[in-house]
Amino acid sequence: MKRFMKLTAVWTLWLSLTLGLLSPVHAAPDTSVSNKQNFSTDVIYQIFTDRFSDGNPANNPTGAAFDGSCTNLRLYCGGDWQGIINKINDGYLTGMGITAIWISQPVENIYSVINYSGVHNTAYHGYWARDFKKTNPAYGTMQDFKNLIDTAHAHNIKVIIDFAPNHTSPASSDDPSFAENGRLYDNGNLLGGYTNDTQNLFHHYGGTDFSTIENGIYKNLYDLADLNHNNSSVDVYLKDAIKMWLDLGVDGIRVDAVKHMPFGWQKSFMSTINNYKPVFTFGEWFLGVNEISPEYHQFANESGMSLLDFRFAQKARQVFRDNTDNMYGLKAMLEGSEVDYAQVNDQVTFIDNHDMERFHTSNGDRRKLEQALAFTLTSRGVPAIYYGSEQYMSGGNDPDNRARIPSFSTTTTAYQVIQKLAPLRKSNPAIAYGSTQERWINNDVIIYERKFGNNVAVVAINRNMNTPASITGLVTSLPQGSYNDVLGGILNGNTLTVGAGGAASNFTLAPGGTAVWQYTTDATAPIIGNVGPMMAKPGVTITIDGRGFGSGKGTVYFGTTAVTGADIVAWEDTQIQVKIPAVPGGIYDIRVANAAGAASNIYDNFEVLTGDQVTVRFVINNATTALGQNVFLTGNVSELGNWDPNNAIGPMYNQVVYQYPTWYYDVSVPAGQTIEFKFLKKQGSTVTWEGGANRTFTTPTSGTATMNVNWQP
């Protein structure tokens, strides 16, 4: 009973904060809206701005671009930032427990109505940019955007913007009159268009067939004018644009189409963000059903940004929606991704979004959606909920999955599931940061445990809608006692009785039943839950979140280098802010020792950059290879692998921008520095170095460069 009283107190505090009855300044640092690096304690709500709420009809487009009835889902329907502000102020989002919103790309889009096979299309979705430094007037003015930021922050809600630096808008290679010719503007000043592209702002290699990573990067995505990130003007423009939005106070960035941009440029883009005003950033790299991509995980681990976890989403849909896999498949996904992601808790989990069919189907069992939401909200990662899921919206692929939200009811079971589980990410660090362990399983039932220090949450789900499950032999880390279902029985959960050693009494889990039981306690030793950002240069302040750090300053270690004193900017029991020490670029383990000397766990894979970064295209000619052999690049800085062939950059490309036997790759390297480098050929474990002396190149202080050389025999 005592534990239930503790949960009730936490719930009362959360309600008080969201209703504005108490000042939010008392929130723990790791859960504060001011913490822009860590979203593990947050629940994201993805809003398609045009389809949410029309708060200001005066900014609606006119003529053929607008359909106020929202019958034609390819036209603007009227949703705007004022509509989102209204739904924050009336408590719809805070009442659901939402602590972060992800909105459509806010930049100015083209105004043309494009005719595709007799069907009119507009840029209602925000992905057809024309000026990355102005707002989309259909969403609102710059002042409206600032008002949205201020309103969200006043209600402890973070704001994530979508950002699509891959392209501008649809264009035709031989018809400059089509749409707006992909034209790019800089705060109203024309930089250039897709045809007659004398400035080389765009790629002109045709459309991608998705056959290779290289093909997808350097060729157009469908008919979208593909930006040339190797162009210094484009590079500087996009980095200046994101700085502008950071200066406006955004808390996070979702980067569109990361699979289709040079990886080296994206790393330099992330270094710009992290070295300037670091915020949580995650990219979109689509994975199909049962697809596991080494390049996908490598990007998540090395780019400096997290990813939308399509691996999680596709498996959750198979298990809870389509019945094409079972709980053993779900377990395999959780365990496999734990290994493949360097920071599994930083990946953004979801069950549907604007690029796939909605999870719920018009004739589907609502319990399937409710269980999938419960699974997502209690699993590792940062959960993102697609707008309208709480209202059981259904719909097929684009644009049917982007309809106007039909209701703002706060009484649906799905709304209540989110309402009851979302606060756990702030009140129980096991949900935010914990490990995941399966405790009981069969084809239809999984019981898993999240654990962080001595904090525990146990989740039981029976996806069989007809047959109850008899649970025997369950052992958890919960201390002895009786635990009420956090969901309050709305998904037919039950009370759990735990005896000595964590052994649970036998019980029956109802058909379609879901229950969550939890225990929280103070930490007795320091334990790190999150570090952000995970890549930056020396001198940048990073945030370490966790529990048990104590109130007095201790020591933070980057590898064996100790940081103390003034370089520890802030130290609280749940959060430390520390400056990266002046150590050589490379990968470091981070650990903490509190004032008493007690040591934390190790948080690994932190990348210290050599310095500010720029992108250089390295091109090597006449590098002939045997079948199965590829060309790589290495050099004397960590960004090039520090002369270690195992960490060399590549394999390089040789099909689109240049063709074999010429190879090329865009690489993020230290800015304004003379670096040494060499090329090598690898086939399996066999390494063949090119001859001659080490090459040297002085990188630019900003913008981009190209280094073009011949293979040295």
TrEMBL record:
Cell compartment(s), UniProt: Secreted
Entry keyword Glycosyltransferase: yes
Sequence ranges assigned to domain CBM20 in this UniProt record: 608-713
Entries under Gene3D superfamilies matching the protein: Glycosidases (3.20.20.80), Golgi alpha-mannosidase II (2.60.40.1180), Immunoglobulins (2.60.40.10)
Keywords: Calcium, Glycosyltransferase, Metal-binding, Secreted, Signal, Transferase
Cofactor(s) demanded: Ca(2+)
Name of the protein described by the UniProt record: Cyclomaltodextrin glucanotransferase
Organism encoding this protein: Bacillus sp. N-227
